[in-house]
Design brief:
With 222 residues, the protein is α+β, with helices and mostly antiparallel strands. The chain has helices at 3-17, 21-40, 78-95, 121-140, 159-175; strands at residues 63-68, 98-104, 108-114, 152-155. The protein has a four-stranded antiparallel β-sheet, covered by helices on one side.
Length: 222
């Protein structure tokens, strides 16, 4: 197949399909064919054969994030949770992203993050992972990578999905068998959701969330 013909096909897909879930599959298929053509032509594969077309949305959306500790590294302790909280708070002030929900567990964590353009979710996660790794390694007097290079992220689509992910994050310690109630786990944002108009919430970790207003209709796209 002709390399230039495939490039033209990619442009046509972008124009007619838009950035939808169906287009995402088409885009990866075209990218795979481009890699094959380059290899047949004797050219060096892009990114060692790994597709660069992974995240079609990187800014101006609420992202549900999952990041795990590498299996070969020790699980995180309470003092290291505190370190993670400080790093995230510092990077939030430095980069300007919004944080709506989060939880730390010994072997993984979740968060809901909004990076406003031109900031990207990739930049946010890299800054957090690098900062946390350096401090925790220094604390442990160890070296090496703490988190895998990849992480899971999902750009949330509706108000309903947004609320579902917040609930999922706060229930995580209960599902993991660490506590019987979400509010019994100090290392999550559930405590930011327990206040009232007259009484500010108590956040044991010191990592508070940002306040946002969402539409009432759960089907509204965000």
């Amino acid at each position: 197949m002709n390399f230039y013909l495939l490039t033209f096909a990619l442009c046509v897909l972008v124009f007619f399909c838009g950035f939808s879930a169906r287009f995402y599959l088409c885009l990866n298929r075209v990218d795979f064919l481009l890699q094959c053509c380059l290899a047949d032509a004797g050219a060096r594969p892009i990114m060692g054969g790994m597709s660069r077309l992974r995240r079609l949305v990187v800014s101006d959306r609420w992202f549900f994030i999952t990041c795990r500790v590498l299996p070969e590294r020790r699980i995180l302790s309470a003092s290291e949770f505190a370190c993670m909280a400080r790093v995230i708070d510092e990077r939030r002030r430095e980069l300007g992203f919004s944080l709506r929900a989060w939880v730390f567990l010994p072997d993984h964590g979740h968060a809901m993050i909004y990076p406003a353009h031109p900031l990207t979710i990739c930049t946010v996660m890299e800054a957090i992972k690098v900062g946390a790794t350096r401090r925790i390694n220094r604390w442990r007097r160890e070296g090496g990578v703490l988190f895998p290079p990849r992480y899971f992220d999902r750009a949330l689509r509706t108000v309903r999905e947004y609320h579902e992910k917040v609930e999922y994050i706060h229930l995580n310690p209960v599902k993991a068998g660490l506590v019987s109630r979400p509010e019994d786990w100090p290392w999550s944002s559930v405590h930011d959701y327990t206040g009232t108009i007259n009484h500010a919430p108590v956040t044991p970790s010191g990592l508070s969330v940002d306040r946002v207003l969402l539409p009432i209709d759960p089907h509204t796209r965000i």
